[in-house]
Amino acid sequence: MTLNSTNFLHIYAQHMPHHESFIVGNTSALLKLREMIDEALKEGEATRDFTASDLEDYQTFVMKIADEEIALFESLEMPYTDQYGEVNSHIFFVNETQNGSTPRSPITLSKNYKRTP
Q1: Hey, where are the domains in the chain?
Q2: Which stretches are tagged as biased composition: Polar residues (predicted)?
Q3: Is the pTM of this model over 0.90?
Q4: For 111, how many CA atoms within 13 A lie in the half-sphere containing its CB?
Q5: What is the DSSP letter of 109?
Q6: In this structure, how many other beta carbons lie within 10 angstroms of the beta carbon of residue 14?
Q7: Mean pLDDT, consecutive 10-residue segments, the chain of 117 residues?
Q8: Residue 57: its pLDDT value, please?
């Protein structure tokens, strides 16, 4: 296996608000990611497998939210990886509601998502 024969991609989320995020990959992975973005813009969603540098494969989703669906976007959990805020929830969720449906994982946006009871 060589760097050029595998779609190597790392996606690093922000640690907390105002921190940087990174997408790092080889040419083939970045081209696949670009294809996914084009597909998501057209179809609403795209899914592909990528490989981390430890040779572990993982699935990546790119999903489009329509401009008029801002409430859906606001219902998603925040992408931060570190504790932020007063509650040890490992997320900072500014759009908390009392109805129990938020914060939502982004996987719930997938057309293929099947909620398990």
Answers
A1: 3-109
A2: 98-111
A3: no
A4: 10
A5: G
A6: 16
A7: 77 85 94 97 95 93 89 79 56 52 70 65
A8: 95
